[in-house]
Automatic annotation (TrEMBL):
GO terms for molecular function: metal ion binding; metallopeptidase activity. It comes from the Bacteria. This is JAB domain-containing protein. The lineage of its organism: Bacteria, Bacillati, Bacillota, Bacilli, Bacillales. SUPFAM superfamilies: JAB1/MPN domain. Residues 53-157 form the JAB domain. GO terms for biological process: proteolysis. The keyword Isomerase does not apply. Keywords: Hydrolase, Metal-binding, Metalloprotease, Protease, Zinc. It comes from Filobacillus milosensis.
Length: 187
């Protein structure tokens, strides 16, 4: 009897924690990737619903959990002055985004780091372009970060997708496809 109650308590604590933190979870090889809901919410806010809306983008920032390879994406940068934004193109300038990353790194007591990139597309269900793939491959080989993996998000109009890239072998794999309005999770 007591045991049953205990199990019930543990179970509800876990459910409560999941509800409080609000993440989306994906897996790549033996790595768990968690993305805090607020990150998706920001991308949703910048999606290209209007016919003249331009692409937006920025860095994904997060941590590697101790004693694992697991990744949590909890922060981001968004378009800065000097970034190139057009209907089908977003190019971020290095300097301003790197300065923000540096600032977030210091504020977090050096626990967060560069974890990848996000940008929007004027498509209902987004696909990466050849240019995106070239950029992502370049970032996998050139980025300075402790993470062995980088996360790439494209926010379409209704759907967002998450890819994970391995810095070891350059593979890029789709790990998550979601709708912003799924049970109003991202409102
Ligand atoms: Zn793109």
């Amino acid at each position: 009897m007591t045991m049953n109650i205990l199990i019930l308590v543990v179970k509800s604590a876990r459910i409560l924690r999941m509800r409080l933190i609000k993440m989306i979870s994906a897996e790549y090889e033996n790595v768990a990737i968690e993305i805090e809901q607020q990150v998706i919410k920001v991308i949703k806010g910048m999606r290209q619903e209007g016919l003249t809306d331009k692409e937006s983008g920025g860095m994904l920032i997060g941590s590697i959990l101790t004693n694992s390879n697991d990744i949590v994406i909890k922060d981001y940068t968004f378009p800065q002055k000097g970034d190139y934004q057009s209907r089908y193109r977003f190019i971020r300038r290095e300097k301003s985004h790197n300065a923000l990353l540096q600032q977030k790194w210091e504020e977090s007591n050096k626990t967060v780091m560069y974890m990848g990139e996000w940008h929007t597309h004027p498509e209902i269900d987004p696909h990466y372009s050849r240019q995106d793939l070239r950029n992502w491959k370049k970032l996998l080989s050139k980025s300075k970060t402790f993470s062995d993996y980088l996360v790439f998000i494209i926010g379409g109009i209704n759907i967002f997708k998450v890819w994970v890239g391995s810095r070891e072998n350059g593979d890029i794999v789709l790990v998550y496809k979601g709708a912003y309005n799924e049970s109003n999770k991202f409102n």
